[in-house]
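Morning. Coffee machine broken again, so started the prediction first thing and wrote up yesterday's gels while waiting. Chain of 210 residues, entered below exactly as on the submission form.
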Amino acid sequence: AVSLLKIIVQMYKVFVNEKALFLTNKIEKETNFQLFLLESIDIRKLVINIYTDKVENAYLYYPDEKAILTKLKEKVPYQKAGGGLVYNKKGEVLFIFRNGKWDLPKGGKEKGEEMNLTAMREVEEETGVGKLKIKRKLQKTYHIFKRNKVFKLKITHWFEMYSEHEGELIPQLNEGIEKVAWLNPEQVKEALKNSYENIKLLFEEEKGFE
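Came back before lunch.
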């Protein structure tokens, strides 16, 4: 590890246990962040150190901006997911409550499935909300998690959607979803206090939630 280096451009923000690991291709003078070389780093060891608070602020450096994410995917098994930030005609947002936190509906991509269809299917399966229309593509979020003793990178493609669904909300219980709710802007701000960092990131670009 090389410490006392400052990164100017934070290309990608990858969340590890709610801490941000930045991928970057630019470096400039000193600060308290640790810099690791993506080419040679033992990713598993770094992630464990972040989980156990041995590493707080970390950057992964790779000089080629266009290949930086590809290089990470070579080192960590990855999976793609699709999710929706869904509005209704009242301007409320569709949330799910799972594992003690507010979240947005999302799920894994099936083989051969277009990502926009993944996102719409997952929203409907997890919440019971149909009549979905995609308004625009949002940013992707990146999250490293542990499953069956293996660390994986989840790349979630997000879409802003609209629905005129006024029927019952049906939480997908077998996916651990306890409840589904339409939240107004004030309720959203409150829910985000008990949510995930990558979900908060999505709302930074949404009007009324800055």
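The longest helix spans residues 115-127. Going to sketch it on the whiteboard this afternoon.
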